[in-house]
């Protein structure tokens, strides 16, 4: 008996899953370990930048008023009262007629209100003292980086849930985050099913293939920001399988099984979901590949039944699991960023369903060009190595010609989109 | 005395550094730890894919000849001789008039040469046996994925030095790489200099700022694929400094110092390079920021003297250190990928030197739009959090208006470019 399933739209499947996506907790890691994590709270400036009036150049700090009548023919002569390196401060207020040699980044001495650059002055010696000659009237504020000019104390620098880049690490250091609040990584369980699957180091056998989905999906989990927990391959016994899923579920925040979701005779997953008392959110989607992608919910935890077909497994993860992982990481934009690109090759096969095709994006004269990989069958495996996008082809009665605009999802993107943007924007 | 330095072009500086860039050694890691590393050897298919003729659908394997005269009114009736699930093989050759129920991915039984899909047949029972009715003449090879159709044994799947994506992990699993040869990460030493620098967890003091460059550059090293080793801040004593650099150099593959490279009075680095007997490759470049970026070589190891200015430090690393790191990782395309983009805002200040401005790229109607970050001074710190490109503005006598084509480097890119591509391509 072939089970009848009710297919739903991709956007509806996304909404059903995201109803159960929730943010996780926050932990602290040393700043050295923060790159690539996701901020656990908004990052606020705890002081002005610069924290004091400082010099952007090597030069002399002066009182602008002392150059009031200076000219090429009658330069102002200011006595060099001392010097300050970066990190030091001049010990007393500068007096009338005085200049202080100052290094890039050093604090402007009290009493001074301008800086003249090194190359703008003549340095002379007179009566055993050092003087500079300034040949023009310098304005108050000349060459000073003022307190708070770059950012004000209390400013929001970046939001919680954002991916921590080297630039954000620099901000964290500037604002004293020796330890950084980051979103805790969700533990994502992985169970592989399929009696055709061999372990990676097993020699090939007739009728069997090596299990590549488990390794692939673990890498996708890491890329999304989660922590994979691999529970191995399913046994062939329903009761044992049930216990494996039940035990795994206790140890994780979400659980992925690969394979075992089709309507064939040997797939236990629907029975296991039933026995667990899961709420099945959907088990058929109007999309290719991955039409039998399944999602369920048990006590607030999401269970994903991804297809055993590698392409379908890959696509199902990026569409339905990744945004739940990024939501756990506090991201406000948990979906892959989409962009519009020109199709780089014909995809003429019409398809009634939305298709998601792995492709490679390149930048050509300022335009995005998306080329499907694996069109040429003799090359399908190696071309997967190059895939960095998913090309979205809305279902219809005709195919797509090269040069037409299509919507693509950027697989290596860290900025993301909101659900509403993902669903509504960049539709070709 | 201000030292006189001979400025060179950016491209010349790149060439001088790359003369000393060399590939490192290879190590093995478990496949679970291979995502994000760089392949240590070319990946070759050790078997055909598929490894055997298999069915892409659930259906019945048949002998096409048995349907020779089949039609809607006179269907061929074939006896169902058994069934095979994925991973199993049919134990004997199929005989004339027989069909074998077959699951997606299962091996085609000997004697069969076509598959009819489940939905194309009528299943009937007659005299206690199961039969299928086929209503048309099926061609030999119908619905069979043939051995080696996707990739041939011996094919090059991806090259050494390539960044290992989830797709490549899947290939590694498919071809039996339980342990994966990856390029060993280069150890990159980091020493911070600058008497104005406070530790990250220190309270602010007059004239001082927290050390953000050390944390930032360590993150950039990780992003580039290296392993950072932080040796702390320089002492203020020349002899001590010299010993710190000398000891650090023994422990690393390349060494970065930040700060201490300008021609000011307090910078020891030139003296230390001289005392070490380094070959200084350059100490002044026609670029902004980072004109005082320095590189030297000692017994084949590269030493970088990056500016203490955060922007200059950031840019100097991406232009001169990153490609040396990627070369160590066996990449054939060690430079950041460049693309042409439309400038999203005016940058009207003319500059005689090449400028590299941190910016943010967005995708707008299929076009790349690059907007400089930190133009608005009141926002310079927070906007750095968003930077994902460097905008390259060739030196000239006029500025750049919004809408003009500019060349940008994609900071999060993993594909890269060769040196010649980087130097010659995508010039606006």
UniProtKB/TrEMBL annotation, chains A, B:
Swiss-Prot/TrEMBL cofactor(s): Mg(2+)
Catalytic activity reads: adenylyl-molybdopterin + molybdate = Mo-molybdopterin + AMP + H(+)
UniProt keyword Ion transport, yes or no: no
Superkingdom assignment = Bacteria
Q: Which residues form a coiled coil?
A: none
Domain (MoaB/Mog) spans: 189-327
Broad enzyme group: transferase
Pathway, per record:
Cofactor biosynthesis; molybdopterin biosynthesis
The Enzyme Commission number assigned here is 2.10.1.1
Q: What keywords are annotated for this sequence in UniProt?
A: Magnesium, Metal-binding, Molybdenum, Molybdenum cofactor biosynthesis, Transferase
Q: Which family does it belong to?
A: Belongs to the MoeA family.
Q: Could you tell me what this protein does?
A: Catalyzes the insertion of molybdate into adenylated molybdopterin with the concomitant release of AMP.
Q: Entry's NCBIfam families? A: Glp_gephyrin, molyb_syn
Report what the protein is called: Molybdopterin molybdenumtransferase
Its gene name is glp
